[in-house]
Amino acid sequence: MSEVTFTSGERIPWVDDMTQGLEEASVLDRLSPVVEAVARPFNQRPLADVLRGTWLGHALHPLMTDLPLGCWTSALVLDLLPGRHRRASRTLIGLGLLAVPPTAAAGLSEWDTLNRPEERRVTVVHAIGNTIVAGLFLKSWLDRGRGRQAAGVGWGMLGGALALVTGYLGGHLSFARLVGTGHRGRPSQRPTVGSRGLRRQSPVFSSR
Questions:
Q1: Angstrom distance (rounded) from CA 42 to CA 109
Q2: Distance separating alpha carbons of residues 135 and 156, to the nearest angstrom
Q3: What is the full DSSP assignment across 52-92?
Q4: Is 50 exposed, middle or buried (0-12, 13-18, 19+ CB in 10 A)?
Q5: Can you give the pTM of this predicted structure?
Q6: 93 CB contacts (<8 Å, ≥6 apart)?
């Protein structure tokens, strides 16, 4: 079977510049001990094995993010549709908030697997950003319950916009830096030749 070669166009320069700037921002190292302290309980075995997805065969956090993001996105879509969807929207936001603790715990359990300062810096921004996102949706949920629907929708839209940024950073960590990728645990079958469990060795960004 012949190998398929995929080609792509140029990446967006300002997005690369922003991400590389975060990776090189040594000032973020001052916040690493704070995140590390919060993450420490989730990096102790056997809890870490559960949260990292050892039993699943791959990282659990990317799967878990679909729960809060899916609920919140659905709520915002309902907000834009005509008709009476206020109760359904608020319920979805509440369900998303309930999914935040296990999702965050799964992400924090990866902290001890980070070996490079660039990865930790982006992770710090990703974690703090997602905390703000959750706070914005909590504010949205509270305002909706108090009858301040317009304010609730506004806070939700702001949280959704910020979630796009933190989601991009999470994607950068997973697919560009390969954080949390590769098989986990002892496979029930022998891995096939070429199975990947290693970090990327080639540069992520072109040299300046």
A1: 5
A2: 10
A3: HTTTTTS-SHHHHHHHHHHHHHHHHHHHHSSS--HHHHHHH
A4: middle
A5: 0.83
A6: 71, 72, 75, 137, 140, 141, 144, 156
Do the beta carbons of residue 29 and residue 121 sit within 8 Å?
Answer: yes
Burial of 103 (0-12, 13-18, 19+ CB in 10 A): buried
Beta carbons of 17 and 75 less than 8 angstroms apart = no
Coil/strand/helix, residue 143: helix
pLDDT in tens, 78-134: 999 988 899 999 999 999 999 999 999 999 998 988 889 999 999 999 999 999 999
Q: Is the dihedral of CA 15, 115, 161, 58 positive or negative?
A: positive
Take residue 168 and report the two structure tokens written for it.
Answer: 């991009």
DSSP conformational letter for 185: S
CA gap 93, 134 in Å, rounded: 10
Q: Which amino acid is at 122?
A: V
